[in-house]
Design goal:
heterodimer, A: about 775 residues, alpha/beta, Rossmann fold, Fumarate Reductase Iron-sulfur Protein, Chain B, domain 2, 3 domains, six-stranded mixed β-sheet, 21 helices, 17 strands, about 55% helix, about 10% strand, disordered C terminus, B: about 350 residues, mainly alpha, 17 helices, 2 strands, about 60% helix, globular
């Protein structure tokens, strides 16, 4: 129904020659089959589809040949029956001019359909209202429908609106875009004239899915036939009151989503936002028709209406053409005359892009093939100087200052261009159209946008690299500390085992002279022979450290004397010497400890041998270290994914949903890894206790103390490190840190003592039990 | 078949810079015709002379700068600068004044800043201001008398002799009404002033026709959408308000009617202040810029020592134009409010 809708206006806009009458003289004609169909796998915004047929396979018309890859993606279907002859990279119609993976089908001419049926029949219902919205969205997704107005955004994604607990939809208005404001293009016009019923039924499906109260169909008033046809189709429906066919003034770019919303509702889509923020969903009339076919006939999106026009074709008109048809095929059908400086534009003269070659196929978004003669659309003249006349400002539908943006882009003052809202430019070309100096303004903006995006990407990359580097450093430090702790733990365990052994041997000796003792002693010389070089080395190092310390002390006292004598230069020297002394002392202590451990190990050779055998195997993929690392990596990935999601949400990207599913999966992985690690780390400790300690109560206690010791040792190491760093940098925290280190050392000593006591009691228990 | 690749947009309107410049030049013709009728052939000779000088100088400097001469000459901007200088100079100014003004305007005010589109100041007004300051005698005292007042107008021969041969212009020249009123009103009443020979009881002394003709030309520019209403309306409003509020007493100050329809008011409002290269470009900025010119015009005319003030008022506002632009950005679609200044807003 035509309702009185309060129309609003958008700023700027232009009135280029319409040139639409050429292609509306003949009805839509079905295009005959070409020899080959080339189906690019990415005909939409989002991840390209993934082929699910093999080369050489026969496919039926409407058969799924590539499935969607993720949420923001759509599947692809065979436009006709035939054979898949290749799956390879081919040039695709995209303004980048790049190649992409394509599926090539050789039609067999039989047009044999795959089985398909209406969703109503499939579900056994009689009316649309009985079908759940989710089933309809699933059908639309399954039929590979992407926005047919030009952008190619997956339709199902736009329709997946979340209702609140009361079942209320956040969407109140459905806007159907039939403006078709670009000159020359008449595909939507002819579709509305000839298939108005399909469009209206598609709208009904959309209204049902979205739960919107009303639908506004915006059509420029230069299409009276289309408006009349839609009104007729509307009147034959009961709920016609919900749908309003609105004639809007002809002005480019009224068909821009943002502009159409402004015209019909007076509201503006927030910068960086989407129409859904206003409770609006916008769909093209072609999409509505495709939805009708998908829901009521089960036909996937395999063909579309494309206008072929321009002075270079003798028979301009609209064709119902299978996806994948080469442009050359359509041009020939329309009587293409060879031109000097031939140019074929896919899309309209304002926002379309030129094809590098006429063999490129038509895709889901190809609404027009424009083949102008060189007189019709002359090649741009050399640009003259900008005289700041401001005609571009008057033409801009986004209320930008195109001229300022031009100067900033040209001077590569990208920050200023951004500050002047460069990214709100919709690249409609109105400014370039009116520029008296023929300056390619839009090209400048594209360049600037590209450069800024590149800069951002580079910045992000370097940020990531920095984070990665920092994480790596932290990991290396942590690993080193862990290694050290393990080494110490091993040494202690060895010492403990040796003590036990000794105690056991003593007990045995006292009971009776057994050959077991001689067996034990016979193995010790071998062990001594094996380990004595290491011991010797350590001892040598110890002596060296002691000499170094005494020398440093001498130097230090000399320097202190000089300092007290008034030589201020000595100040730094004294400090350096002091720190060197402390370092040497620490090293000496470490060495002494190592030697003690080595000696113990030497004594407890058999026990140590079993211990090392039982120790964690580095090659074992189920070792706690590996599992823990696995868990940590998974956790880090999860954190990164969450961060990305937040960014995506902040920028309103359409990858949000995909990221969310990714995060859920990653969380699962993290949980698994964590569980695996926990399962493993519990076990070895238990086995160790069993093997080393028969007395369970005291052994558990000893174990707890040992753990504490390890932790304390770790803390001590870290504190010492920090202290050394502070000394090097001569920070004023040195005193505090020294104090901390000393305290930590005391704690450690206390713990060691406690352990020793425990062990003693343990060995006594063992001895007594042995004697019993 | 390989095809030609170009990026969008592919369609282009049929507007061009040379058309814009030519239209502006043609829109000055009514004013030129009225001036010639009132003040004799001096104005016409000046305009032709200045235009020729301007084109010749532009060609010369383009050649020196190794720029394509014909490509830039055909934009008609030098022609327009010359015509505006010719209209601004006194009708009987000697030829060398025209030459100095034109050459300075083209070489210094325009080309040395980078040529077309890059000059921060209005070239014609720079040239005019230079000769006004350098040669005050020739510039301020020998404005031709108006035939409206029954004065004998210099014929073609007289004009040629005064302009080229250094002949005396005394017989044909005197002070302008704007200047005379300002000087006489200090010790006379309005009625007494009007009895002066410059007025003969007729307030604008023929200048109203000149201004109305330029107004007509300006309306053509508005109709052809070459200029927008903002600058002229704001400038005339600024001038009117000042003269109505500050100069409401015709016995004390020059009345608003004389301000609006005398001197270079309309030429300035529609042809000088609207020079897009040196003016503010945002809609709000244009209003501020125009109003600033109107106010300065009144201030300099009333309290300054020069008979007219369009050149100085415009040049002073030229200084402010980039600043005004930065602070008057329109609110972009989808934004809650407009950006101000050139600083990037912090984290969005």
């Amino acid at each position: 129904m035509t309702h009185q809708i309060q129309l609003h206006s958008f700023d700027g806009g232009i009135h280029p020659a319409e040139n639409k009458q050429q292609s509306t003289r003949t009805p839509i004609r079905p295009a005959p089959l070409p020899a080959l169909l080339t189906l690019p796998l990415g005909q939409h915004i989002g991840a390209p589809a993934v082929p699910c047929v093999a080369v050489g396979e026969r496919v039926l018309k409407g058969q799924l040949v590539a499935h969607a890859d993720g949420f923001v993606s759509v599947p692809l279907h065979a436009p006709t029956s035939g054979t898949v002859v290749a799956i390879e990279d081919r040039p695709v119609p995209h303004d980048s001019g790049l190649t992409a993976l394509c599926l090539i089908i050789e039609p067999d001419g039989q047009e044999q359909w795959i089985e398909h049926q209406s969703l109503l029949d499939e579900l056994g219902v009689t009316s649309l209202e009985d079908i759940a919205a989710s089933d309809l969205v699933e059908r639309i997704r399954g039929c590979g429908i992407a926005g047919m107005g030009g952008a190619g955004f997956p339709t199902a994604v736009k329709l997946a609106v979340k209702r609140d607990d009361n079942g209320n939809s956040p969407i109140n208005t459905l806007i159907i875009n039939g403006a078709e404001c670009e000159p020359y293009i008449t595909a939507d016009d002819m579709l509305m004239r000839e298939r108005a019923d399909e469009v209206i039924h598609g709208i009904r499906v959309l209204l049902h899915i979205l739960g919107a109260q009303r639908c506004l169909v915006g059509i420029e008033d230069n299409k009276p036939e289309a408006i009349a046809a839609l009104n007729n189709a509307c009147q034959s429906l009961d709920q016609s009151s919900q749908i309003s066919i609105v004639a809007i003034p002809t002005k480019y770019p009224s068909g821009g989503e943002k502009q159409l919303i402004q015209i019909l509702t007076g509201e503006e889509v927030p910068s960086g936002g989407i129409p859904a923020n206003l409770g609006i969903v916008c769909q093209n009339v072609g999409t509505a028709s495709a939805i009708y076919r998908a829901v009521y006939h089960g036909e996937p999106l395999i063909s579309r209406i494309t206008t072929v026009t321009g002075d270079a074709v003798s028979d301009p008109g609209n064709w119902d053409v299978m996806l994948g048809t080469p442009a050359s095929h359509l041009l020939q059908l329309s009587g293409y005359q060879p031109q000097p400086l031939p140019r074929v534009i896919m899309g309209g003269p304002m926002m379309g892009f030129t094809l590098p070659d006429d063999s490129l196929p038509l895709v889901k978004t190809s609404n027009c093939l424009l083949a102008p003669s060189v007189t019709e659309m002359p090649v741009n003249e050399a640009a003259m100087a900008c005289i700041r006349c401001g005609m571009c400002t008057l033409a801009c539908p986004a209320q930008l200052l195109p001229q300022q943006l031009y100067w900033f882009s040209k001077a590569e003052e990208f920050d200023k261009a951004e500050q002047h809202n460069l990214f709100d430019c919709i690249e409609c070309g109105a400014c370039s159209y009116v520029c008296p100096s023929q300056i390619p303004l839009v090209q400048y903006y594209r360049h600037a946008k590209g450069a800024i995006r590149e800069e951002r990407a580079a910045h992000q990359k370097s940020e990531q690299a920095r984070e990665r580097f920092e994480r790596r450093l932290a990991r290396q430090e942590r690993e080193a500390a862990e290694k050290e702790a393990k080494r110490k733990a091993r040494a202690e365990a060895a010492a403990l085992a040796a003590a036990n052994k000794k105690a056991a041997a003593a007990a045995e000796n006292s009971a009776s002279a057994t050959p077991a003792a001689s067996g034990g002693s016979s193995s010790s010389p071998v062990a001594a022979a094996l380990t004595s070089p290491a011991l010797e080395k350590l001892q040598k190092q110890l002596t060296a450290a002691q000499t170094a310390i005494s020398k440093t002390k001498e130097k230090l006292s000399a320097a202190q004397q000089a300092l007290s004598a008034g030589d201020e230069d000595q100040q730094t020297k004294v400090a350096a010497l002091e720190s060197a002394l402390v370092k040497a002392q620490t090293r000496m202590k470490d060495l002494a400890k190592d030697i003690a451990a080595e000696k113990k190990a030497l004594k407890a050779q058999p026990a140590a041998a079993t211990d090392t055998a039982a120790g964690p195997d580095k090659g074992d993929p189920n070792s706690p270290e590996r599992l823990q690392r696995k868990w940590e990596t998974a956790q880090a990935r999860l954190d990164a994914a969450i961060k990305r999601l937040e960014e995506a949400k902040a920028q309103g990207l359409d990858t949000v949903a995909a990221l969310e599913t990714g995060i859920v999966k990653q969380q699962q992985r993290v949980d698994e890894a964590k569980a695996a690690w926990q399962a493993v780390t519990g076990a070895p400790v238990a086995t160790n206790t069993d093997s080393t300690e028969p007395s369970s109560q005291s052994s558990a206690e000893a174990d707890a103390v040992r753990k504490k010791i390890r932790a304390a040792q770790d803390r001590l190491n870290k504190a010492q490190e920090r202290l050394a760093m502070a000394r090097e940098q001569q920070l004023d925290t040195v005193d505090a840190l020294t104090l901390g280190v000393n305290k930590q050392q005391d704690k450690l000593n206390a713990l060691t003592q406690q352990l020793a006591e425990l062990e003693q009691t343990a060995s006594q228990t063992t001895t007594t039990s042995g004697t019993d | 078949m390989a095809l030609m690749t170009l990026s969008s947009p592919h369609a282009h309107g049929n507007n061009s810079t040379q058309k814009v410049m030519l239209t502006v030049t043609l829109a000055t013709l009514p004013g030129l015709a009225v001036m010639t009728a009132l003040f004799g052939f001096g104005t016409l000779i000046n305009v032709v002379l200045a235009a020729l000088f301007a084109i010749a100088t532009e060609a010369l400097i383009l050649r020196i700068r190794q720029r394509p001469v014909m490509f830039f000459l055909k934009d008609n901007s030098a022609l327009l600068t010359g015509v505006l200088i010719g209209l601004a100079l006194p009708p009987l100014a000697p030829w060398w004044i025209t030459l100095v003004a034109t050459a300075f305007a083209i070489i210094f005010a325009k080309q040395l800043y980078g040529g077309m589109g890059n000059n921060p100041f209005n070239p014609a007004m720079i040239g005019y201001a230079l000769v006004l300051i350098s040669f005050p005698l020739q510039m301020t005292t020998n404005w031709a008398l108006s035939s409206q007042m029954g004065a004998s107008v210099a014929g073609l021969g007289d004009a040629l002799s005064v302009i080229f041969a250094g002949g005396s212009a005394d017989a044909f020249s005197g002070a302008t009404p704007l200047d005379t009123y300002k000087h006489l009103i200090s010790n006379k009443t309005a009625t007494e002033v009007l009895t002066d020979t410059t007025f003969n009881g007729w307030l604008n002394g023929g200048w109203e026709w000149v201004n109305l003709a330029f107004l007509a030309g300006g309306l053509v520019l508005l109709w052809r959408r070459i200029i927008t209403w903002h600058i002229p309306v704001a400038m005339l409003a600024g001038l009117s308000l000042c003269s109505l509020i500050l100069g409401w007493d015709a016995d004390m100050y020059t009345p608003a009617s004389l301000h609006l329809l005398s001197g270079a008011t309309m030429l300035g409002a529609f042809f000088i202040a609207t020079d897009p290269v040196s003016a503010a470009t945002t809609p709000l900025g244009k209003l501020i810029y125009g109003a600033g010119i109107g106010i300065l015009l009144y201030i300099i005319r009333t309290w300054g020592s020069y008979p007219d003030a369009v050149a100085f008022a415009v040049l002073l506002m030229n200084f402010a134009a980039p600043f005004i632009d930065a602070y008057t950005q329109p609110r972009t679609y989808g934004h809650a409010k407009a950006n101000r200044g050139l600083k990037k807003p912090e984290a969005k």
